[in-house]
Amino acid sequence: MFLRDSGSGHRRGKDRRAAVLPAPEGRPRFTGPDAPAVAVVGGGIAGIAAATLLAERGVRVTLHESEPGLGGRLSGWSTELADGTTVTMSRGFHAFFRQYYNLRGLLRRVDPGLDSLTRLPDYPLRHSSGLHDSFARVPRTPPLSALGFVALSPTFGVRDLARMNPRAALPLLDVRVPEVYERLDSISAHDFLTRIRFPEAAHHLAFEVFSRSFFADPRELSAAELVLMFHIYFLGSSEGLLFDVPDEPFPTALWDPLHHYLAGHGADVRTRTPVRRVRPLPDGGLDLTTDQGTTRYDAVVLALDSGGLRRVVAASPELGDAEWRARIERLRTAPPFLVSRLWLDRPVGYDRPGFLGTSGYGPLDNVSVLERWRARPRAGPGAPGARSSNCTRTPSHRPPTGVPSRARCCTNCTGSTRRRGAPASSTSATSGGRTARCSPWAAMRTGRASAPPTPPSRWPGTWSAPGCRWR
Hints:
By secondary structure, the protein is α+β, with helices and mostly antiparallel strands.
């Protein structure tokens, strides 16, 4: 059973101690011809939020997005399966945690009761060794949240707690920004957990799943980021670690309605319009150049991912000072990851969770079953239902024989072309000259944590691809 938001529209969620921090005082709204013209570059969540707040205050906003639709990393696009069914593909599973007050406030512009979000009943984790964990019964209120997780988790034993170094673990309890970065940003999360003698089993299960959900190698993730996230999800909020998911594809549930909302507030949303250069002007304005020409704006908001930001700044030599430009140049991009989605002509077994975080299955990150919360795609009789999972760089696996005949698969690697109608036994995608070979069957095995693959007749539905070996 999945629960709906109560519809109260209360922006602070269920945490009674949550506080709304007001913005600095200023002019509440522009009216008439004196409204400034502002360009927002990037149509992801950050860009949409910036454009929304400005347009609501009467600013003449132009939103530039290089892709065909809004959403950034949470965008989606239509693709056609081999049987002619039209479906929506995306870059994988995304959880909408209840601590995301600003995001939920943005979504309430078009969905006041957040009726488009469905609550998942658990956040299960599974390791290939057979260890599994859950957050369903963990208390929400700190510090009971952290203590409850330790008490309920099979990865923490009494001896493990006795071995931990409490002095070294103090940064977990004293989180202040930017001080936490000054103290811990030079240390990897892996080394920090080793220093505090974090239990090995919990390290492999909870921490690796957490680390990889941020597309970070555990040995490269900053200890400052780890500590800050521990604070946000455990000790800084009473919302708990359960989350919501949209019950329709991202464009339908989120971005198309927000696109219309922006247009209703006078914003000009320009998709397929990459920004090439930004040049400051002597009068305080800025020239912004696209493939269609150059336009002057009173201000520009850069809401790009790290790669796009580096490209725009590199092509805009007059923008910013040397220190700022050096910081931008040092930004890195997360490693490539593969998302595979398969469609079959039968439901997934009801005992399979809607979302499962995994560890120890090579670089498989998670498996999700969309039919748990999402309607089937609109198609004729016999059309397959949608179930999906995503993974990060994984070794290839040999698929078993007897692949279900009606499996349909779509794959996507960040920055890659999308291949459709690929055979279910092995899918492939190409990105930047590197090829990924993927087998959906290894992901199927994670649902039962069994060594040999189960015959296809025992696997009603679709799971997907852990296999990608980059060449």
